[in-house]
Structure formats: structure tokens, C-alpha cells
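User: Here's a structure from my thesis project, written as C-alpha cells. My advisor, Dr. K., wants to see whether a designed sequence matches the one we expressed. Can you design one independently, without my sequence as a hint?
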């Protein structure tokens, strides 16, 4: 990492924590000679991240066995300084490089279950069982977490001491993620269990805003 090296993080535990706090990643790759970036859902199991979609997915078909860059970012707040130049943001991000590989068909269901259970513990067993044709229509890729780095900023504005006498507000405006009230489907079956609470949110790390 060349710029803002003091924000770089290479510890695996911190990289995993940032990945586990997220749900959406952006996958960058080259398709027919052009750079493309597509957002998608992901999850981590051990030393690999997983991407899933339909067998017709352009993203999955393009990156299977090819070089890809996967990024995850959490915006934790906006940092307001006394000068426009020193405004910033508090964030946590991870950048991964690798080659996603197809997951064998006979292993797909176990990984999809892990994805669902990671978001909603106990929900998989309450759902209608997955059908064979649904699995055949699903493609699953995994990518090892080998070439990875994190970048983190937290705390107040970093500005010259002389600027602090300028009479304008400065500080951090925290951005806090929160789930809204559940909106039940109009076709919900009678006696259905209440909406589950997601297992995680992208909460700021310790020391953040």
C-alpha cells in the first residue's frame, strides 16, 4: 500500500472481522477487454470467500478461474475539518486478489446453508427444502483469502493546529447502520413464525465514531 500507509492493516483477524461485518462486495474483472465492477452478496467460511448466483450469471462465468479483485467497504462516518482539504471519512475496507474457482455440485448445498445460517441462525431448517433443480440452476464460486489487505481510518480530523482556531464546526458525523421494522409478505401463511433478526450489521470497529 503506497498512500496513507499508516491506515494499512495486514493482520488476518482484522481482515476477517471486516469481511464478516459485511454482506455486499464489489467484484472487479476484465470482460471482453473492458474493466467491469459488479456488486454482489458474499460470505466467508474459514480462509475462503464465496460468491453465488445463477448459472447464467455474467459475473460468475467471467471470473471462474480468472483474475479478480474483490473489495468490501464500510463507511463509518464523515470527518469534517476546518478546511475543505482536510475533510475525510472514517471507514473499514478490505481488498482481495485471487482466482475464484467453481465449488463442486455435491458441496453447494452445505455452503448455501452456511450463508443463510450466517445471516439468520436457525432459519435454514425452517425453510422449504431446497430442490435439486434449484441447485442445478445455481453456481457457486470460492476464492482463497491469500493476497489481502485492509485499510482503516477512525477518529477526529487530522489538521494543522493553526486551523483549529477557525470558527467553524469540526468533528465526526457517525453513520450507523440499522434494520427497519419487518414488512411481512401479504401472502404469509397463517401461524408463521415472526420475522427473524439478522445476525450482524456493519458496526464500527472499536475506536471508531
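Assistant: Designed independently from the structure alone:
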Amino acid at each position: 500500500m503506497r498512500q496513507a500507509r499508516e491506515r494499512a492493516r495486514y493482520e488476518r483477524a482484522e481482515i476477517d472481522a471486516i469481511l464478516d461485518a459485511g454482506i455486499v462486495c464489489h467484484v472487479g474483472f476484465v470482460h471482453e477487454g473492458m474493466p467491469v465492477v459488479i456488486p454482489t452478496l458474499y460470505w466467508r467460511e474459514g480462509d475462503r470467500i464465496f460468491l453465488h448466483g445463477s448459472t447464467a450469471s455474467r459475473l460468475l462465468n467471467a471470473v471462474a478461474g480468472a483474475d479478480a479483485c474483490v473489495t468490501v467497504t464500510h463507511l463509518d462516518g464523515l470527518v469534517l475539518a476546518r478546511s475543505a482539504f482536510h475533510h475525510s471519512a472514517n471507514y473499514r475496507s478490505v481488498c482481495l486478489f485471487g482466482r475464484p474457482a467453481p465449488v463442486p455440485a455435491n458441496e453447494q448445498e452445505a455452503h448455501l446453508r452456511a450463508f443463510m445460517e450466517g445471516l439468520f441462525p436457525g432459519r435454514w431448517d425452517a425453510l422449504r427444502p431446497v430442490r435439486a433443480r434449484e441447485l442445478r440452476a445455481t453456481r457457486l464460486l470460492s476464492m482463497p483469502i491469500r493476497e489481502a489487505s485492509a485499510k482503516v481510518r477512525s477518529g477526529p480530523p487530522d489538521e494543522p493546529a493553526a486551523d483549529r482556531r477557525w470558527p467553524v464546526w469540526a468533528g465526526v458525523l457517525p453513520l450507523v447502520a440499522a434494520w427497519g421494522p419487518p414488512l411481512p409478505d401479504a401472502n404469509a401463511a397463517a401461524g408463521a413464525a415472526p420475522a427473524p433478526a439478522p445476525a450482524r450489521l456493519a458496526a464500527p470497529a472499536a475506536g471508531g465514531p
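When you compare it with your expressed construct, this may help: DSSP finds four helices and ten strands in the chain.
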